[in-house]
Write a structure and sequence with these properties.
Layout: E1 2-5, E2 8-11, H1 19-41, E3 46-48, E4 61-64, H2 73-77, H3 81-100, E5 105-108, H4 111-120, E6 126-128, H5 142-154, E7 159-163, H6 173-183, E8 190-194, H7 203-210, E9 215-217, H8 223-232, E10 235-238, H9 247-254, E11 259-262, H10 265-271, E12 276-278, H11 281-292, H12 295-308, H13 315-323
Parallel strand pairs: 3-4, 4-5, 5-6, 7-8, 7-10, 8-9, 10-11, 11-12
Antiparallel strand pairs: 1-2
Helix pairs in contact: 6-11
């Protein structure tokens, strides 16, 4: 199906929830459809946004790699047999790609991910290119940000935590369930907002959420609508166990949301020292308690992360770096 979007011709390809049908379609697109299209249109460059590109077309290809299971053995070992089987097939596919097309250029979003790719796949040509801030969210400038923080302090009696993420096992939503259960036995008054498609929540997680009124699933939110949730929250909580970047981290920072996250390489690469590092349920509750008792402490942490967010690149800067 060919349609127009922002003046561009967009070709949509059918897909399926069945992983094997998706792989079959992927092979068809890469080995037949795209080479034919590139030949007809006489394109000299190809950009792949999805990790893999075995397109047999004689040009140098730029490939954005953003799949943590390609390198993270620890995270992969915790998955089911079927997930491990499929992910190992993907690793073989990626290794074959590196071997067959040594001139391909790859991009990683963090220093840690870049190093891991080099260690796992010999001979890979990989460069660092952090993800940009989306242009679909209306991020506040300093005057608007200061107003947002004042409004948050007025609503400080109930602390709102936000986790913007789809559901995958490594996203670690189970940590939030345990956190909510523990906080219910403290004096903290809070709400925890998550953004999971109702049709993709495992039954055990759905049941746990229904048993905890302090957790509110607002469903998967369009990027254009995320700003209001970042603005009305006090903290971003990001318990994911592995990421190649973590767009929610930089988006929250642009709204001055202090972020509670584990002391992991991707967190350090993206947020540096402005992240509020936690290592357990107890340390998370302790951090929230310290902020709930001191609005001034919250203002300082918020201002620090907002100022740090000014270093994040825009889409325009990202395209310019990609084109070099």
């Amino acid at each position: 199906v060919i349609m127009k979007e922002k003046g561009k011709n967009v070709i949509t390809i059918p897909t399926s929830d069945n992983i094997f049908i998706r792989l079959f379609l992927r092979f068809g697109v890469e080995f037949f459809f795209v080479p034919f299209l590139a030949l007809i249109l006489k394109k000299k460059k190809l950009l792949a946004f999805g990790n893999y590109n075995l397109i047999p077309y004689p040009v140098k290809k730029s490939i954005l790699v953003h799949h943590p299971y390609l390198v993270d053995d620890c995270a992969l070992e915790k998955q089911s047999f079927m997930v491990r089987f499929v992910e190992n097939l993907k690793r073989m596919y990626f290794s074959l790609q590196v071997l067959l097309f040594p001139n391909n250029r790859y991009f990683a979003q963090t220093e840690h991910f870049l190093t891991a790719l080099k260690e796992k796949y010999n001979g890979i040509d990989v460069s660092l290119l952090p993800n940009p801030l989306t242009n679909k969210i209306d991020f506040p400038q300093l005057p608007e940000y200061l107003c947002i923080v004042r409004n948050r302090i007025k609503r400080y009696a109930c602390i709102n935590l936000l986790y913007v993420s789809r559901y995958y096992p490594h996203k670690n939503h189970d940590f939030l369930i345990e956190l909510a259960r523990h906080i219910e036995h403290t004096n903290l008054n809070f709400k925890l907002f998550i953004t999971i498609d109702e049709n993709k929540i495992p039954l055990n997680l759905k049941q746990a959420i229904s048993d905890l009124p302090c957790i509110v699933n607002i469903g998967e939110v369009r990027q254009e609508e995320l700003g209001e949730y970042y603005e009305s929250s006090h903290f971003c909580i990001f318990p994911s166990l592995t990421e190649t970047f973590g767009n929610g981290l930089i988006e929250a920072s642009k709204f001055g949301l202090p972020t509670l996250a584990f002391d992991l390489p991707y967190v350090n690469d993206v947020l540096g020292d402005v992240a509020l590092k936690i290592d357990s349920i107890d340390s998370c509750i302790k951090a929230l308690n310290s902020f709930s008792n001191s609005p001034d402490y919250y203002k300082q942490a918020s201002r620090a992360v907002f100022e740090y967010s000014q270093t994040f690149i825009s889409v325009g800067e990202w395209v310019e770096k990609l084109s070099k």
